[in-house]
Fold this protein.
Amino acid sequence: MSDDISSGLSATTRTAVIAGVGGYVPPRVVTNDELARRLDTSDAWIRTRTGIAQRHVIDPGTTTGDLAVEAGLRALKNSGADGADLVVLATTTPDRPCPATAPAVATRIGLPHVAAFDVAAVCSGFLYALQTGAAAIGAGFAERVLVIGAETFSTLLDPADRTTAAIFGDGAGAVVLRAGERDEPGAVRDIHLGSDGGMADLITVPGGGAEQRSRGGFPGPEDLYFRMEGKSVFFAAVRRMAESSLTVLDRTGWQVADVDRIVAHQANTRIIHAVAEQLGLPPERAVLNIERVGNTSAASIPLALAGGMADGALKAGDRVLLTAFGGGATWGAATLTWPDLPRA
Ligand code: UT7
C-alpha cells in the first residue's frame, strides 16, 4: 500500500477549471527592521536566509475568516460569477477550534446554505483543498467551488522566537473552480498528495487539542505557540516537493522542460530554488512573492497565483506546476494550464 494518493482526473472528461483568482493581505506591514528592533535578528539575516523583506500582519480583532471573505469575494468577482455550491477553506488558524470557519465565511460571502467545511493540512492545505474541490466537480457533486486558503499565523507565533517570527505572515488567497474540459485553458490537470505522520513533531502546536485535554490538562500560553524544526523541515520540503512534482508531471505526461511556471509554497526562496534545481528547472521560472508577504502557509500558493496574475508573471496558456510541503508532514503537487482571466 502506498503512503500517498494521486487523482486521475483524466479518468473523466468533466474537469475542474480555474475561473477566478483573488488574494488579500491585511494592510499592516511589518518589515525586517521592525522585527530586529524587538528580536535578536537583522534584515540582512532574514533576506539572505529566507528571501523575505516584509510580511503583512493583522490588526487586533481581525480573524482568518475576515481575510478569507475578502479573498473569496475577489476570486468570485474575478470569475464574473456570484455564486458557488461548495466552499472549501484550507487553514491552520481557524477562528475557533469548533465549529469550522468555512460556513461563517460562506454566509458572509452571500452563500448561506451551501456545503462548506475546513481542510487542515498546514502549508499544503491549499493543494488538499484544491483536490477536494476538483474531485467534487469531477464527481458531479458540485458545478462551482470556491477554494480558499487563509491564515493568521501571527496569532500562533511565540513573540520570543526569532526564527518563526521572521518567516510567517498573514494573508488569504482563493480560486473559483467550475466544471469544464481537461483540454481547455485553466484546467486542473492532475494532483498528487502525500503525508508522513512520523514527522508530526517537526511542525506543531503541541497543546490545546484533545491529546492534552484527555490527560486532564489545559493549555498554558507556551503550549499554544507554533514550533518548527527549521533545518529538518528544509531538507524534507525540498525532497518531497521535488518527488511529488515529478510524480504529477509523469501523470500529466509533461516533461520538466514543458513547465513554464512553478508556483511553489513560499516557505523560503532557498527552498524554492533548491526544488527547481533538483527538477532541472531554471530558477527564473519560479513565481515569487515571498519577499513581500513571507510564508502565509495555506494561503501561500493562491496568494502567489493572484500576485502572478496581477503582475503578468502568469500568462494564459502557461503550463503551471504547483507544489507544497507542510506540517503533518503533508505535501503535494498539481499541474494546470493558466486560464485567460481579467487582471485583478
Ligand atoms: O511552511 C512550512 C514549511 N516551512 C519551511 O519550509 C521552513 C523551512 N526551514 C527554513 O526555511 C530554514 O531552516 C530557516 C529559515 C527556518 C532557518 O534557516 P537555516 O539556514 O536553516 O538556519 P539554521 O536553523 O541552521 O540556523 C543558523 C543560525 C543559528 O545560529 P547558530 O546556532 O549557528 O549560532 C540560528 O540560531 O541562525 C540563527 N537564526 C537566526 N539568526 C538571526 C535562526 N533564526 C534567526 C533569525 N535571525 N531570525
